[in-house]
Amino acid sequence: MKFKVFNSYEELSAYSAELVAGVVREKEDAVLGLATGSSPLGLYEELIKLYDDGNLDFSKVKSINLDEYVGLDGTHNQSYRYFMDLNLFNHINIDKNNTHVPDGVAEDLQKGAEKYDELIESMGGVDVQILGIGPNGHIGFNEPAEKLNLNTHVADLTQETIKANARFFASESDVPTQAVTMGMGPIMKARKVILIASGENKAWAVKSLIDDVITTNIPATLLKLHTDVTVLLDRSAASQLDEK
Ligand code: F6R
Q1: 139/101 Cα distance (integer angstroms)
Q2: Alpha-carbon distance 155 to 178, whole Å?
Q3: pLDDT tens, residue by residue, 58-83
Q4: Does any ligand 1 atom lie closer than 6 A to the CB of residue 219?
Q5: Residue having the nearest C-alpha atom to atom 4 of ligand 1
Q6: Model confidence over 112-157: pLDDT tens digits?
Q7: At residue 22, what are phi and psi to the nearest 5 degrees?
Q8: How many Å apart are CA 103 and CA 81, to the nearest integer?
Q9: CA separation for the pair 4, 16 (Å, rounded)
Q10: Per-residue three-class SS string for 180-217
């Protein structure tokens, strides 16, 4: 696992965009595994800049998102489909038919989850997986637990996650309590993983990534078993690491 610490979130974001751009330049139909939330916002801004400047072509790129809230359809302004359209897809030349976000309002969520795994498989897996990290060490919505799921599934969000995400909603009680999330399987199988963490509230989870313990109670620690993970940090997220 490689760690890189940046003086600012802007520098971190520009660097992460170059990593993603490198993958796309090498493989024009690359499959991007995408995350929502605050962490990748700067990356998406930088990717849009690269596209605007004529330095990156998304016309053949495909994407698969990590998760979606149960109960929110794509028109809801806090749904992850809406987030992706707003913050990335509407601004680049990606074919929206090639962008995928789990269906949080499927009549049969379990069936939808199974279909999502088939879809990931049919796309040939993920070339580069973008991850944020929860303050509790979750990745996607694979929350700390005794057991983790391999496949896409409906996850109960922990109280800590609901609290952390309440900032996007009118009140904490408006935050959905469940999400459909990609399991650990496709994340661990992604050919390359880029994890972005910024802010003091991520420092504990980030520190857990350098300790030598791997535990399902801190799902991100499973990434230690992956051979190509780059962790990009700002100074605050790195504040509990010994060598900064
Ligand atoms: C989002 C996701 C989550 C977030 C994590 C960090 O699609 O899967 O794991 O990456 O909760 O969220 P932010 O970046 O908002 O701090």
Answers
A1: 16
A2: 5
A3: 999 999 999 999 999 999 999 999 99
A4: no
A5: 132
A6: 999 999 999 999 999 999 999 999 999 999 999 999 999 999 999 9
A7: -60, -40
A8: 9
A9: 10
A10: EECCHHHHHHCCEEEEEECCHHHHHHHHHHHCCCCCCC
Give dist(CA 142, CA 154) in Å, integer.
Answer: 10
CA dist 199 and 208 (Å) reads 15
Q: Is 177 in contact with 167 (CB distance < 8 Å)?
A: no
Token pair, residue 137, equals 């060490």
Q: Where are the domains of the chain?
A: 2-234
Please tell me the total number of residues recorded for the chain in this structure. Answer: 244
State pTM to two decimals: 0.97
Record the tokens describing residue 105, joined without a space. Answer: 């309002």
The CATH class of 2-234 is alpha beta
Q: What's the CA dihedral at 145, 146, 152, 157 to 10 degrees?
A: -20
Quote the tokens at residue 162.
Answer: 């609901």
What residue has token string 């976000």? 101
User: What whole-number distance in Å separates Cα of residue 244 and Cα of residue 229?
Assistant: 18
> From the CA of 218, how far away is ligand 1's center (Å)?
14
Query: Whose CA is closest to 22, among 3, 59, 60, 50?
Result: 50
Give distance in angstroms: CA of 40 to centre of ligand 1.
Answer: 9
Query: Are 31 and 63 spatial neighbours (Cβ–Cβ below 8 Å)?
Result: yes
Q: What residue's CA is closest to ligand 1, atom 15?
A: 37
